[in-house]
Amino acid sequence: MKKQIVTMAVLTALLTPMVHANEAGDWVIRAGATNVDPDSGSSGVYVEALGGDTPLSVSVDDNTQLGLNFAYFFSPNWAFELLAATPFEHDVIINDPSGIAPGIFGVPVDGATLASVKHLPPTLSVLYYFSTAGSFQPYVGLGLNYTTFFEESFKSGPSSLGFNDLELDDSWGYSAQVGLDFYFSESWLINASARYIDIETDATFNIGEIAGSADVGVDPMVYSIMLGYKF
């Protein structure tokens, strides 16, 4: 009988959610993998010397880096959050479904890696937690993003065809996210989140002496899995 009572007590303890009430003044620091997955659509390329809009377009691949996340609770249900990361690096792909490129450059370019670019997308958000106690704490958030692009450069192949002087403008936009903190001890947690970030940038470049441009809608989904600590 005593053995059964002990067994039931252990099972009850294991199955009972731990209480982790958030309080004003709490800080949560998280770190882990963050993947930036840009919109799979492509953006049209404009070249004035070729009559303006062309059948060419560009798209951007995804990239994963170390994500850092800081949250400060100013009430049990509300928190500020800052998303940071090591620089993301993306390849820019040129698309030529019409086959126009051989007539311009002398070689096919459809699907070729045109350039690479790095960016940092710090995002400040306000989070609302639906629950301030228990092991599982889901939340939603809205925020403001600033993305700065740097180290834009064409690959050697496109450079040999005359592509040069690539620049991408910085971007301001909104973000929206859903997330979940799962506490497995009094202070340690696993975090998972998915957010949409509105990132629009104007890309300018030259083909020889000919000016070209593209309005690039990056608009990525950003996925994170992180380990966190609350103090």
Distance between the termini: 42 Å
C-alpha geometry: elongated
What share of residues is helical? 10-25%
Unreliable spans are 8-16
GO cellular component, one term: outer membrane
Keywords: Signal
Signal peptide: 1-21
Pfam families: OmpW
Overview features:
Porin; 3 helices
SSE layout and pairing:
Layout: H1 2-15, E1 27-37, E2 43-47, E3 52-60, E4 63-73, E5 78-85, E6 88-95, H2 101-105, E7 113-120, E8 123-129, E9 136-154, H3 156-160, E10 163-168, E11 171-183, E12 188-197, E13 200-207, E14 210-217, E15 221-230
Antiparallel strand pairs: 1-4, 1-15, 2-3, 2-14, 3-6, 4-5, 5-8, 6-7, 7-9, 8-9, 9-11, 10-13, 11-12, 12-15, 13-14
Brief write-up:
The protein has 231 residues and is mainly beta. It is 10% helix and 61% strand. The radius of gyration is 24 Å and the shape is elongated.
Describe the structure.
- The chain contains three helices and 15 strands.
- It has 231 residues and is mostly beta strands.
- The chain has a single domain (21-230), classed as Porin (Beta Barrel).
- Strands 1-4-5-8-9-11-12-15 form an eight-stranded antiparallel barrel.
- Mean pLDDT is 84; it is low at 8-16.
- InterPro entries: OMP/PagP_B-barrel, OMPW.
- Keywords: Signal.
